[in-house]
């Protein structure tokens, strides 16, 4: 047996123990919403949680379940009904919702996943659940890591830690994966012991999907990648990057990021962690630029010669006294908002129109009017002012009753527990309340 296999075997958890630990970790009272497709993993998660709570009826934890019918296969509505029947037999309230939106031709899996999380979050809101749980397993984790490693070898993407054990979705609800250290085979054995069955999704065998091909490849490989310590590395980096941020970085008016020159001598691992986040935030994108682009920026900074480069919609302006980051004044689309409406402009600002008439928000250009300290370079300030939001009311006057708050795009969807320290401090740089929610 290889070293990796030993690590995985020693660390894999049994489903009933994982369910018990998760319940134990919650602040009480709590209401858990289980995302259940009816496959073995999510059925196992529901059964393990229900069984545990039945054994401890005074635990002050409520359980509900939800199934999203993506409407992509003829059988999906029947399957949702089967899951509803299973939940009824366990005495767990169940909600089924259908994905009604337009279905794209490409990237259907990613679109379905996005819609699924959106609908689950809505359901959690409606029934006042504090946490949504999904049943991702150690097998899913290995597949994800193998896929990401393959992409990195092809020069795409940024290094990650695989599937996070918890993520804050849309700033609204924690999504937690209590089975991330459990093996699918153990979950199936657990269900079989109880005489319970599950649904088999035929797309799990469809080799047109990268994940299915990866699963089949890993099944032939005796030594799958060991992944179990990814979270602690990430947490350590998040803390180091926070210290770096505190020491060297100032954000002015939500549009100009000043990084002192000494900051650029920091450990490359810290820069490679912090800069993609900063770039994503200032560029209004959910992700940082890919590895190749970031590499070029790091090399440019390493050389230290004053000059300008762009990546991910952000201008990197390197001067003798430091580095300045700001949104590139390019492809900034205007946003129209009816009275009472709100929206995100350029991925960087959330705008709420409380006024009586429609408004339009566009890049301020020469009209940008925020105050900046005198000590900042004039050119950088001028560029930063140009990418401020300018509100134009329907009647041509600047609207008075419009709220504008910075919006940190990458933190909205995929912020993980490992990144919380850094994320908290970075949102504080924008003058916002710390980002982290109370721990689970
Ligand atoms: N149709 C569904 N309804 C409710 N929950 C679902 C559904 N499909 C998946 N889930 C939940 O998500 C978990 C992971 O499922 P799957 O591996 O198919 O997801 P995925 O497509 O890889 O997306 P992601 O990893 O982002 O959830 C399941 O164990 C289950 O908890």
UniProtKB/TrEMBL annotation:
It is an enzyme of class 6 (ligase). Its EC number is 6.3.4.19. It catalyses: cytidine(34) in tRNA(Ile2) + L-lysine + ATP = lysidine(34) in tRNA(Ile2) + AMP + diphosphate + H(+). ATP binds at residues 37-42. Gene3D superfamilies: HUPs (3.40.50.620). Residues 31-216 form the tRNA(Ile)-lysidine/2-thiocytidine synthase N-terminal domain. It holds the Pfam family ATP_bind_3. InterPro entries: Rossmann-like_a/b/a_fold, TilS/TtcA_N, tRNA_Ile_lys_synt, tRNA_Ile_lys_synt_N. GO terms for biological process: tRNA modification. Belongs to the tRNA(Ile)-lysidine synthase family. Ligates lysine onto the cytidine present at position 34 of the AUA codon-specific tRNA(Ile) that contains the anticodon CAU, in an ATP-dependent manner. Cytidine is converted to lysidine, thus changing the amino acid specificity of the tRNA from methionine to isoleucine. NCBIfam families: lysidine_TilS_N (TIGR02432). This is tRNA(Ile)-lysidine synthase. The lineage of its organism: Bacteria, Pseudomonadati, Pseudomonadota, Alphaproteobacteria, Hyphomicrobiales.
